[in-house]
Amino acid sequence: MSRVVHSSTALSALEADLDHLAQVGLYRSCRVVQSDQSARVILEGREVIMLSSNNYLGLATHPRLRAAAVEAAERYGAGSGGSRLISGSMELHEQLEQAIARFKDSEAAIVFNSGYQANVGVISTLAGKGDIVFSDELNHASIIDGCRLSRAQVCVYPHRDVGALSKLLAENADAGRKLIVTDGVFSMDGDIAPLPDIVAAARRHGAMVMVDDAHATGVLGPNGRGTVGAFGLEDEVDIQMGTLSKALGGFGAFVAGRQILRDYLINRCRSFIFSTSLPPSVIASALAALEIVDQEPWRRERALSNAAWLAKGLNELGFDTLGTTTQIIPVVVGQADMAVRMSQMLLDRGVFAQGVRPPTVPEGKSRLRATVMATHTGEDLAQVLHAFAEVGRILGVV
Ligand SMILES: Cc1ncc(COP(=O)(O)O)c(C=O)c1O
């Protein structure tokens, strides 16, 4: 009996916390989509334009990805049976890693179950007590959590500020291992890390560089290789992390780099070692996605030209999109409750653009995060712009 009382007391504390979140406009809940993740989806019974998906190239619904998943499930079954070191690495995992290494122009690659697991695992493997991680202030939460788990000292540098980063590197010259980690394309701002300058600073100070190219993989650079490829820095960036879940339309993640990095992660990285590997259907659809990225460049060209058209239109209306040049368009509105209201009013007009609030973005910088897809039509985008214009004026944002 005493346990029941104890747990209900604990749950009341959770209730109070949720009440507080609701009061300050930060309460979150999931909306239900009843269709696949196309450019238009059925959201809670209504067709709306999807402007909140990372399915940038439209591959999540591509017939070849679906077929590859079905075929692999038929041939290899539904699950992988365990972690790769215990149950054996399926031949599909090995094939995918070779395909990723070719795609990223790197010596080797290793697959992870998600981007979150990759970042948490890799950072905490490569840095520990006595080491330092230098991390951009707007890096993804999974990088922040990887830094925390590593128990290394963490130096957070102002967003994209290589001068400040260099100063921190110089001040900590005596530290053990030094690891600089940055998003390639920042997930909430859509801007690009100054990788050539970061790499130069790293060289001067003997630091490793890790780039999280979750949002650039498949979209930017030659053949969609990402920001590292766009800058031609494949040999300079030690750790290229990417996801299979965004432009590649499936699920999972990877790290590309030297063979020694792969061997080290297999031996030391806990989120790789102690987790069941991805199922065959997921791996097979990732292989199909890589082929399509290679064969259908129009998808990344269209995603970027669609985004440029929408960002220009939003800017002309007076919205602040932080000068984005990628498929991620932040529409900054300031306060959290304004982002929530605007998101709801857009939804009433058939546009699903999710409001993003603290702690995902800094206080006072709440926004709508509009993500554009290759498969949005001109008609979709015109409807989006019209809805933003109307709602922006009603709310006095423009
Ligand atoms: C920059 C960045 N890194 C990592 C992740 C995590 O990837 P995943 O969704 O595969 O866990 C995300 C996803 O939201 C991201 O935006």
**Biggest sheet record:** 7 strands, mixed
Measured distance between first and last alpha carbons? 58 Å
> What is the helical fraction, as a range of percent?
40-55%
User: What is the name of the CATH superfamily of the largest domain?
Assistant: Type I PLP-dependent aspartate aminotransferase-like (Major domain)
The number of helical runs is 15
Which shape, going by the Cα principal axes? Answer: globular
Radius of gyration (CA) equals 22 Å
Which consecutive residue ranges, at least 5 long each, have pLDDT under 50?
Answer: 1-6
Helix-strand category: alpha/beta
Q: Overall pLDDT, averaged?
A: 96
Strand content: 15-25%
CATH architecture of the largest domain: 3-Layer(aba) Sandwich
The tally of strands reads 13
Order of helices and strands: HEEHHHEHEHEHEHEHEEHHHHEHEEEH
Counting structural domains, the number is: 2
Ligand list:
pyridoxal-5'-phosphate
Task: Return the CATH class of the largest domain.
Answer: Alpha Beta
Task: Describe the fold and architecture.
It is a single chain. This protein is an alpha/beta fold and 398 residues long. The chain folds into two domains: 25-54 and 297-394, Aspartate Aminotransferase, domain 1 (Alpha-Beta Complex), CATH 3.90.1150.10; 61-295, Type I PLP-dependent aspartate aminotransferase-like (Major domain) (Aspartate Aminotransferase, domain 2, 3-Layer(aba) Sandwich), CATH 3.40.640. 45% of the residues lie in helices and 16% in strands. The chain has 15 helices and 13 strands. It has helices spanning 2-23, 63-76, 84-87, 91-104, 115-126, 141-150, 162-171, 195-205, 227-230, 259-268, 270-273, 280-295, 298-317, 336-348, 378-394; strands spanning 40-43, 46-50, 108-112, 132-136, 153-157, 178-183, 208-212, 239-243, 253-257, 328-334, 351-352, 355-356, 366-371. The strands form three sheets. It has a seven-stranded mixed beta sheet with strand order 3-9-8-7-6-4-5, sandwiched between helices. Strands 1-2-11 form a three-stranded mixed beta sheet. It has a three-stranded antiparallel beta sheet with strand order 10-13-12. Helix 2 packs antiparallel against helix 12 and helix 4 (91-104) packs parallel to helix 12 (280-295). The chain starts with a helix and ends with a helix. 48% of the residues are buried. Mean pLDDT is 96; it is low at 1-6. The site of pyridoxal-5'-phosphate has 14 residues, from helix 5. Residues 114-116, 119, 140, 142, 183, 187, 212, 214-215, 243, 245, 253 line the site of pyridoxal-5'-phosphate.
